[in-house]
Structure formats: C-alpha cells, structure tokens
Amino acid sequence: MTDEAHARALLGGPVTFLGAGACCVAYSDGRRVVRLSRGEGARFGVDGAIRQALLAAGVPTPEPLLSGILPDGRPFSVDALARRDGSVPDTGGWHDLGRALAALHALPHRQFGLLQDRPDVFVGVAPTPADGLRSRLQDAWPFGGAALADHPLVRAAPELASRLRELRDDLENVIHSPTALCHTDLHGEQLRWRGGRLAALLDFGDASIGPPAWDVASLAFFHGWEVAALVAGAAGLPCGRDAALFGLLLALHHASRSVTLGRPARMPAAVTLARDCLARL
Predict the structure, then answer these.
(1) How many Å apart are CA 181 and CA 102, to the nearest integer?
(2) Which residue range or ranges hold the Aminoglycoside phosphotransferase domain (predicted)?
(3) Nearest to 215 by CA among 100, 122, 131, 135
(4) How far is it, in rounded angstroms, from Cα 56 to Cα 120?
(5) Is the model's pLDDT at 22 over the cut of 80?
(6) Mean pLDDT of 43-49
C-alpha cells in the first residue's frame, strides 16, 4: 500500500497530503491528522504522552487519538487537527507560548538527551549531559568529533574560530545547568495561531532533556532575540548568557546539518545566529 492508501484506511475516507519531514509524512481528512513514520526517528509514543500531560495542564496542543504499527512495521499516529487562521502572534500570543513552555519544562523527567519512545515516563536516552547533547545535536563542537578548524561553521565564517575557542570552557559548562524537558525545535510550523494567540504547540518528537536555555536559544534562532526575550519572560526564564552559549551550540549543529542534509540555505542562518550570540557575550 502507498502512504496515502494507509492514511485513507486509518481515517476511513479521502485524505489530503499535508507535508513530509525527516521522520514522517502527514495526511489529513480535515478533522484529523495521520502521521506515518519514514524510517528511524519517529517518536509517536512519547510525543502523544507529552501532549496528554500538557492538555491536562491546560496547554493548547492537538489531542492524540490513536497510535500503533502499520502492517509493514512502521509506527503511525492519529491526532486531532490543529487549526489556525493565518494571523500573526501578538505579545499575548508569545506570552501564551511562554506559559506553555513553562508547563512543558515542569514535567517530571530523568537522565539526558532525546527521550526514549515510551508512554509511561519521560526518560532521556543518555546518562550524562554531554551524551544527551550528542543524542540531539550534530557535531556541536566541542562535543562533536570534528576539530574546530574543520567544522562547517568555521569553514563558512573563519573569523568565528578564535572567539569559539576562547569560549570552550563556557560551552562545556553550560550543559550542566539544571535540566528541563525541552521542545528544542520551535520553528514556525510547530506553532498554530488564532486571533494572534497560541492555538496549539505541536510535535514533541525531538523533545530532549537539557537546560531550558535550549528552548530560549531555539526561539532566538527561528524568531529572533526580541521574541525569545518575550517568551522567556512569560516562562520565568532568563534570556542571557546561557541562552547565547546554547545558541552557539545550535549554530554549530545547524551548520553541520546544512552539509549533511544538502541544504545550503541553512548555513547563512547558522552563521548569523553565531554572530548574534557572540555579540551578546
């Protein structure tokens, strides 16, 4: 069966293709969304468990309806469709997101890094902060395998090397801050807005256990530091040195991903984030 045929069978009628990511492909019947795994990386079990916990805390997020395994062995999930109206977030909407992240960060958790795909507890796959970071970020120097001089970020912007080298101890220390259950990937498609307010926070498949500065840095990368400060304030988080240091780790990660995924457009954004973070330190 094709992916579309699987989706039609699960939803019991015609479906529309919504999109495809690194880990899954999605279809909708206008009320529900079915996601089908595309190889390794999909974590539908823990994703649904996080959303159930957030719904109980009053956070807007799509209700998980069904999950299981297709006849071909691939995981799938069926969720309520999160609707949006095309509006842009206002200050109140960003504050909504801050309160949603505060609820996410408060969920009980243990260990580090990407979450194990289990519905009962939120446990990272790694026993140490460094291993946890490596489970989620690709070659984020000094935690990756590449020498700084050979890193794609430094090859793209050689002037960054000396400042990064000076900050090595700070980068190694920032990951040892108190942990939270973090979203880690707060780009625009993970957020749904209606009337400028947050209608839904989506997709916890990359959720990881690490310092909450991780989410502040993710917001800065995708939405800018002004938005990051608004959201962090509503979440009760600082938007200072730790966020800038974590932003450097994200810049290194996205530069590496730009190369391995063959997406050169990511590199200028990674370089810009690195320069902005260094300017804040």
Answers:
(1) 10
(2) 30-234
(3) 100
(4) 15
(5) no
(6) 94
Q: How many helices (H) and strands (E) does the chain have?
A: 11, 11
Least confident of 7-11, 134-138, 144-148, 275-279: 144-148
Q: Label residues 102-141 b or e (16+ Cβ within 10 Å = b).
A: bbbbebebebbbbbebeeeebbbbbeebbebbbbbbbbbb
- Three-state DSSP class for residue 190: helix
Do you know the residue count of the chain?
Answer: 281
Of the candidates 255, 190, 182, 170, the residue with the CA atom closest to the CA atom of residue 214: 182
Tokens of 211: 């310092």
Q: Residue 58's CB: how many other CB atoms inside 10 A?
A: 9
Q: 237-253 pLDDT, tens per residue?
A: 999 999 999 999 999 99
Q: How far apart are CA 279 and CA 98, in angstroms?
A: 24
All structural domains of the chain, each given as residue ranges with its CATH number in brackets, are 3-80 (3.30.200.20), 91-279 (3.90.1200.10)
Element (H, E) at 226: helix 225-235
The residues, ordered by sequence, that sit 6+ positions from 33 with a Cβ below 8 Å of its Cβ are: 18, 26, 27, 62, 78, 79, 80, 81, 82
Determine the distance from the C-alpha atom of residue 234 to the mean position of all C-alpha atoms in its chain, rounded to a whole number. Answer: 19
Contact residues for 164 (Cβ-Cβ < 8 A; gap 6+): 141, 148, 154, 171, 248, 274
How big is the CA angle at 40 (ends 249 and 10), to the nearest 5 degrees?
125
| Contact (Cβ atoms closer than 8 angstroms) between residue 88 and residue 65 | no
Whole-structure pTM value? 0.95
C-alpha to C-alpha distance for 133 and 78, rounded to whole angstroms: 30
Q: Pick the closest to residue 170 from 251, 277, 245 (CA basis).
A: 245
Residue type, 126: A
